[in-house]
Amino acid sequence: MGWVTNFSSTISSISPLNTPLSVSVKDLEFGPDQLGEGFGFHYLELGKDPDKQSPVRCTLVQYKPDNATDFYDRPGLLLVHGMTDYFFQDHVARYFHARGYAVYGLDMRKCGRSWREGQTWHHVTDQSFYDLDITAAATVITNAHPTVTAFGHSTGGLNVTMWASRLRRASVDMPEGPEAVLHAKLAGVVLNSPWFGLQFGAATRFLATRVFPTLGKLNPSLLLPGGINPLYGKSLHASEDGEWDYNLELKPLTPRPKYLTWLNGVVRSIREFQSGHYCTGVPTLLLASDKHHFSKGKITEATRTSDVILKPSQMREHARKANPDVDIVVLKDAVHDVFLSRRHVREHALAITAEWLEENVK
Questions:
Q1: 111 is in which domain, residue-wise?
Q2: 0.90 exceeded by the pTM?
Q3: Which of 151, 213, 237, 300 could form a disulfide with 79 if both were Cys (CB 3.0 to 4.6 A apart)?
């Protein structure tokens, strides 16, 4: 059983962006985490599930080695995962801790450590529900640390972008409100291969935008046809063709089935983002591979040196809708999660990010 802070009485029944939280990570008790020495986790209870499953929670993972005497004086980093994912990138935490940051990972509702019996893994019908998870985590961090920079990967990149944009908009509307307080402490956004465009072919795009929304309303229990290609997972995990030994219960090689209502929510969020009416309002960095390679065959060299999930060209095309002054970095031979690429590629990605943080955050 993990350590718990219950926010259900304060933030679950109203907008996640208009209730201040006084608790900080200093007040939380972190239990030993599966990532090992220096890592701890704490459940943040979020209350009722808008999708009418069991009560939801998110999990904050903290990397705090014993020798970190200046820990709460450090800028905070919050790492937000993507679809069928969870926080396991301990090498990223160690890298940035060594450079003077306080690193936290977030497992969002129904994902990773946060999943509960009776819940559909990774399922939300509206991506904006995640605003509450990110707000709760960012608030308890900034109540102890001077600032926080939010990292978002894949779907998490879309979610972090939209969350920061809604936070900025709310802070403009209510400059004395808690939204303004939190946005003022949001030092930056780092987007790791964000889901900014529908990567499908024309026929599937037509289904996703014109047919699935109606089918999802008629039958919310309909599963997405065809399943999701397991090639990426197999190229990453040490049991197959990769080097990463993560928890396959929390991040299976073959992503769990998804419902039409889940994809409909993603499509709505992408369309909102592409409308051009959103902006993070803070320094923003986008990292992506130089190419994509979609294949359902065997793992090849192209699988190991390309984004096999999304199209980096779409990320670059729409990047300035996240922030007109976004910094875009194209990483040769990077995979979908650039920090899980081959050693020389990920070391380059980490170094570039550290340099950017030094210039924009510290």
A1: 8-360
A2: yes
A3: 151
